[in-house]
């Protein structure tokens, strides 16, 4: 009798293990830490300029970013509870809506720094190109997983790229740097789904040719190439030079949090795209390496989830989010260190930008949703 009871308990425990779901708390902790660290650095980099330009309110940028970050975190938890297969039902509608918003930006968008990239909704400015990243990830994951057998030949690969091309072109017209990110996301998702090396050599050539065409469309883009090649003498390289001064003056351990000199109106947009230079100045090489390692850990946790996803669709969603975050980190740090030409790519979770942080957190919600579908083995 006792043996039967023990056997029944063992079977019950095994059944519970089969239905027990996984949740990646390590990924969640890393993301929340990066967001909180970003808020600290945004205050540190913007307090002086904000006090001058916003009627003495040194907390102006911190309050705006903090409120939107809280909204993004709430959205992340909500999306993480929604089964990720739900997005298959609405992705075509979302793709069409995104295309419409991007077209409206070109027609009647709000300009900043000479470029139309925002839509004004009352007092709120919304950047559809950030939404386009999340939508394109879901759309290509859906298309590639549904037609994976067709991706074994060049016709299927080309067809999948053509589906993504309208969004990429609409973004690239006014925002080449984000267009490059979208092209990179598309390339990585389709490549992982097809695994056809020879086909993608041609795709790389086509993508490079497309970007060269858009480089020639606007003169300021070629000016950035000149600034990259002649950083010491070019009149267009002021921002990069100041960022390099900040990095060089930080040394190994930095000047201390809040003690940057370059953020005092020397580095333009210090709280936006150039925030990594102030991190290097205030926290030194040690702080910069620590942040890079956190991003590497974040990408590693995403890779673990992708490898254990129950289906290709879920894996491709996670791969797309990995591609976006990885490309943005590489490009942002490359720009700040003058390894790459200057572009307007923010450092994920850290740079100031409400639309960016909201959609990045929504994408992490998608990754966590995929992680919830992973089950422990008995």
Q: Brief overview, please?
A:
By secondary structure, the chain is mainly α.
Task: Tell me about this structure.
This protein has helices at residues 2-19, 25-53, 60-81, 87-108, 128-146, 154-172, 176-194, 197-217, 219-229, 238-250, 275-308, 312-336, 354-372, and strands at residues 110-112, 115-121, 124-126. It has one domain (21-372). A three-stranded antiparallel beta sheet has the order 1-2-3, with helices on one face. The protein contains 13 helices and three strands, in the order H-H-H-H-E-E-E-H-H-H-H-H-H-H-H-H. The model has no long low-confidence stretch (mean pLDDT 85). The longest helix is centred in the last third of the chain and has 34 residues, at 275-308. Helix 5 runs parallel beside helix 7 (176-194). A hairpin with a 2-residue loop joins strand 2 and strand 3. The chain is 72% helix and 3% strand. The protein is mainly α.
Beta-strand content: under 5%
Assign the structural class, choosing from mainly alpha, mainly beta, alpha/beta, alpha+beta, or little secondary structure. mainly alpha
Main β-sheet, in a few words? 3 strands, antiparallel
Please work out how many helical segments DSSP would assign.
Answer: 13
Radius of gyration, whole Å: 22 Å
Q: N- to C-terminal separation?
A: 25 Å
Please tally the β strands and state the result: 3
The helix content, as a percent range, equals over 70%
Average predicted confidence as pLDDT: 85
User: pLDDT below 50 for ≥5 consecutive residues: which ranges?
Assistant: none
